[in-house]
Specification:
Length: about 240
């Protein structure tokens, strides 16, 4: 069972429901997509509107397995900004869950981060229309539409109006998680139908061995379309990638 979209409003100022934050005390990298390998700080928000079988962050939405009171906390925008300022790293990745469920209270966070000279990348599933307040210079959306092979009904996970709006914004890239050439072919159908560009493909897998073998399965199909191929750096670089 998933929680409904959640927006938090407190008299003391905007707050966000956070699953975890990392990259300040123990430095790390952006592990996927166009900024793969760049030093990064992560804010992982709780709650999601999808229930993907292959999701690796089910603690953000699967309340049959997790108690939301134990795996999430409310944190103020001010506290999050102060935490980010403790690091010199420029790139702040806001992920989830689905972070755009809380976008009303994300807008002041993003504004403060940009004022501090940071740049922001959202990791989003492409089902929630972004608020214009987030479509500003210094912000990019890494959009990962979820295919049926990822364990999600595409009637819910593919929202054409949102994908087209993100593509037309000029501030989005599209990253498809794939485990087979059939997944690459399905991604191509969506790319052509909805005018998505630029495109990255990332191998599905939670071990270095799986990432390597799946990359070799996908590489020719991705290269033939002149798309980008990304790895999952956290899985390759760290023995325990959780919180890294």
């Amino acid at each position: 069972m998933t929680a409904p979209p959640t927006e938090v409003h407190e008299a003391s100022g905007p707050e966000l429901i956070v699953a975890e934050r990392f990259g300040v005390e123990v430095p790390t990298f952006q592990g996927e997509g166009p900024s793969c390998g760049h030093p990064a700080i992560f804010i992982r928000l709780s709650r999601c509107n999808l229930t993907c079988r292959a999701c690796d962050t089910k603690e953000t939405w699967d309340w049959s397995r997790f108690d939301p009171r134990e795996v999430s906390t409310k944190q103020s925008v001010q506290d999050l900004v102060s935490w980010v300022k403790a690091s010199p790293v420029e790139l702040v990745v806001i992920t989830g869950g689905e972070p755009l469920l809380q976008q009303r209270n994300l807008a002041p966070l993003v504004q403060r981060l940009l004022e501090e000279g940071r740049r922001v990348e959202f990791e989003t599933n492409g089902t929630v229309m972004p608020d214009p307040a987030l479509l500003v210079a210094g912000v990019r959306f890494n959009v990962s539409p979820k295919l049926a092979s990822f364990g999600m009904d595409e009637a819910k996970s593919i929202v054409p109006s949102v994908l087209r709006a993100l593509a037309e914004s000029g501030q989005a890239v599209f990253k498809f998680v794939a485990s087979s050439v059939a997944d690459v072919d399905r991604s191509a159908e969506l790319v052509d139908r909805h005018g998505l560009a630029p495109v990255w493909v990332m191998p599905e897998g939670t071990t270095a061995e799986a990432i390597t073998s799946t990359t070799r399965v996908l590489a020719d199909a991705v290269a033939s379309r002149h798309w980008h191929l990304t790895t999952r750096l956290h899985v390759l670089a760290f023995a325990d990638p959780k919180g890294r």
